[in-house]
Amino acid sequence: MIKARIVVTLKNGVLDPQGKAIEGALGSLGFAGVGSVRQGKVFDVEVDAADPASAEAQLKDMCAKLLANTVIENYTVEIA
Amino acid sequence: MIKARIVVTLKNGVLDPQGKAIEGALGSLGFAGVGSVRQGKVFDVEVDAADPASAEAQLKDMCAKLLANTVIENYTVEIA
Q1: C or N terminus of chain B, fewer CB within 10 Å?
Q2: Hey, of A3, A11, A60, A62, which one would you mutate to test binding to chain B, going by the most B CBs within 10 A of its CB?
Q3: Which of B11, B14, B31, B59 to mutate to probe the A interface, most A CBs <10 Å?
Q4: Amino acid B56: pLDDT
Q5: pLDDT class for A18, splitting at 50, 70, 90?
Q6: Pick from A9, A26, A44: which is nearest to B44 by CB?
Q7: How many structural domains compose chain B?
Q8: What ipTM does the predicted assembly reach?
Q9: Residue B74: which of B5, B3, B6 has the closest Cα?
Q10: Smallest Cα–Cα separation from B58: which of A80, A31, A62?
Q11: In Å, how far is A25's CA from the nearest CA of chain B?
């Protein structure tokens, strides 16, 4: 089993209301000097693959087909 | 402005129905050999701090107070 971490983040320029709400909440909690906050998703996946390269190819395929909306999101795959 | 990435993941042993649903969906899409999938959250935060150490302290405080539920979640802070 090869372990990997996939991080999906919103592309630059895409509005992130959840991040904005967190910014506001941090301000209300007394954290001064908080700049932008952007929220994304992380997936820790275990795949059964012969080698890291084929695992990475499979994981990128998963991102394109299910895990990320490539119109508005970027993704990165890191093999652990 | 210091940029940081906060990753919040469920602790081991905490049930992750969202991850289980993704596992099932990947199987239905024809991805064989997918082991466990666990979903977490990622926050890209910019903070105004004098040095990386004070930024990290402030970010950990944010995690404890707002971004993570420390009963069921772990968090890591990486300064970029």
Answers
A1: C
A2: A62
A3: B31
A4: 96
A5: very high
A6: A9
A7: 1
A8: 0.92
A9: B6
A10: A31
A11: 8
